[in-house]
Write a structure and sequence with these properties.
It is built from 3 helices and 3 strands; from the N terminus they run ααββαβ. The protein is α+β, with helices and mostly antiparallel strands and about 130 residues long. β1 and β2 form a beta hairpin.
């Protein structure tokens, strides 16, 4: 099959647009994966920090220690926007809001929310010793 003269060079026009589209979709896929990973990390670390505070007694010293632990585990890539602790006789609660990292473009508006918001509640457990009511 012979190529017609007017079809020469059409690959040079279509190839850059195809590569650009591929790289755009690849970057979007990586951004979505980073958002899901960040949400998973925030959920796991937030729950563990709330559990630490509850098992520490739920007082201010336990909450400060749990917050320090939470910030060290989340790391510098995920920025914490808000941490609200509350504690009563039975429950220790944490409301956490964090912003996941972005690549070249901020695709979080395409994903949904711009920040990750979670609420954790853990019951405080009292230790019972043998022989005590």
């Amino acid at each position: 099959m012979r190529l017609r003269r007017d079809e020469r060079g059409t690959g040079l026009v279509a190839l850059p647009w195809g590569i650009l589209a591929f790289l755009t979709f690849l970057m979007l896929a990586v951004q979505v994966a980073m958002h899901f990973y960040s949400a998973s990390v925030v959920t796991a670390v937030g729950h563990d920090a709330t559990r630490r505070a509850a098992f520490g007694g739920g007082d201010s010293a336990a909450i400060v220690d749990a917050e320090r632990w939470l910030r060290s585990r989340i790391g510098p890539a995920i920025s914490i926007e808000r941490l609200d602790w509350s504690s009563n006789r039975d429950i220790v609660a944490l409301e956490l809001s964090a912003r996941p990292p972005t690549l070249l473009i901020d695709a979080s508006s395409l994903i949904g929310r711009r920040s990750i918001e979670r609420r954790f509640e853990v019951r405080r457990e009292l230790a019972r010793f043998a022989g005590l009511p």
